Amino acid sequence: MRMEKVKEVIIPKEKAVFWLDRHGYWRNRHGRFERPRIIAKFHAAIERDRDGYYLAQVNGDVREKVYFHHEDTALFVFGLRIVGGAATLILNTGRELLLKPETLFIQGDALYTTVGGERIRFSEKGLVKISRLLEDDGQTCYLCLGDARVAIPEKPSAAGDAERETHDG
To answer: How far apart are CA 13 and CA 61, in angstroms?
Structure first.
């Protein structure tokens, strides 16, 4: 049996015709994507290498990698599942991660976590899901999970952070 080598086609960010906004919505020059199946397919195809985030698909004997612009981050918490005293985060890519309260932080008007150096923002839907676990005393926000009550630190925002577009992955 002979294995055919898959040819790889790489599209740089500068030629990508779509991007991911800071709220986790795919957009192109016509506006926000509206078709749920296309949106889900794009999110599920996100991968990362040393050059940044890209969408990957195999089309026949060609593997296409399209690097894309993203505002803030390419990874978002879309859902949350709580079992016992543990919470699992469901990302836009479909990946699931155990929530580690010590990785949470607030920056600007957003809640984030980090995993392996990757910054992950809670989408609006993700915030609604986790909101029942949050308490705020007017000065500090806390995550309350099981018997634990952990303060969520605030990190200062760099000038223009909320509006910047990341070009280097």
So the answer is: 23
Are the beta carbons of 99 and 148 closer than 8 angstroms? no
Q: pLDDT tens, 85-113?
A: 889 999 999 999 999 999 999 999 999 99
Q: Beta strand pairing status for 75-83 and 69-71?
A: unpaired
Please choose, from the candidates 160, 167, 73, 87, the residue with its C-alpha nearest in 3D space to the C-alpha of residue 123.
Answer: 73
Q: pTM, whole model, 2 decimals?
A: 0.87
| H helix and E strand count, the chain | 2, 19
**How many angstroms separate the CA atoms of 25 and 34, rounded?**
9
Q: Terminal CA-to-CA distance of the chain, rounded, Å?
A: 39
Phi first, then psi: what are they for 26, rounded to 5°? -75, 140
| 58-62 LR contacts (CB < 8 Å, sep 24+) | 58/6, 61/4, 61/6, 61/7, 62/6, 62/7, 62/8, 62/9
Q: What is the mean pLDDT of residues 13-36?
A: 97
* Residue 165 Cα to chain centre, angstroms: 14
Render 92-115 in DSSP notation, one character per residue. TTS-EEE--GGG-EEETTEEEEEE
Beta-carbon count within 10 A of 117 CB: 5
